[in-house]
Structures are given as structure tokens and as C-alpha cells.
Amino acid sequence: MKILIVEDEFLIASRIERLCNEILGSVLSQITCISDLADVKVYLKTNKVDLVILELNLNGEDGLQILQQFTAESFHIIIVSAQKEKAKDAFDYGVVGFVSKPFEKERLKLALNRQVQR
To answer: 23 in helix, strand or coil?
Structure first.
């Protein structure tokens, strides 16, 4: 599985990356972290991923732009964000999970395991 983590806070991105490695183990073949919305758009146009773990507030920019632009792509999206009020909008775009910050390992594990079972 190839995962793209879209998170602008380095410590949170590192924690998500570490937890993905712990939870998914050998299922995970590649993990990439990007913090800038413009870089994410370029990356998604030129690289294949299976799952995007997306923060909705990226340095003041709206991560929903990724959902609006890439909803018909072949990857799935899990939102990890403190912006609970945007959960409904995110699910309208077809995300497979919403993990609210601050999050526990078990909540992220549940969302990731649902994705692996697909």
C-alpha cells in the first residue's frame, strides 16, 4: 500500500507516519509526507497512491480542495483533522474515514484497517 500524508505540522505528520508503519507493517510499501497544498496536487498528478491521509487546514489553506479536485481518482482518503464541522462535507466527497484531532492510535488503526479490508 502506498500512502500520502498531507499534514503541515511536522510532529503530527511524523506521528501519523510512525503509527502507519506500526499498524500496517508489511502491507505498507511506501509512505510520503507533504505539507504544502500545491505540492500535493503536483504529487497526485504524477504518482500513484492507494490512500491519502489528509489534514483539512494546511497553513491556512483548505484541504477540501484536494477532495474537490481528485474525487474521481483511484485512491481513498482518510481525514485527520480538528475541523469536525467539515466532516459532513468531507463525507459528501467520498472519504472513507474521519479521525478527529487529537487522536488516539486505536482510532487511526480502526480507519486504516477498514481501508486495508477494502
So the answer is: helix
DSSP per-residue codes, 53-77: EE-SEETTEETHHHHHHHTTSS-EE
Domain of 54 in residue numbering reads as 2-117
Instruction: Note the pTM of the prediction, 2 decimals.
Output: 0.91
Number of structural domains the chain divides into? 1
Q: Nearest 5°: CA angle at 66, between 25 and 44?
A: 60
CATH of the domain at 89: 3.40.50.2300
Distances (CA, A) of 74 to 13, 47, 52, 109: 23, 11, 11, 22
In the chain, the percentage of residues whose pLDDT exceeds 90 is 64
Residue 52: φ, ψ to 5°: -115, 130
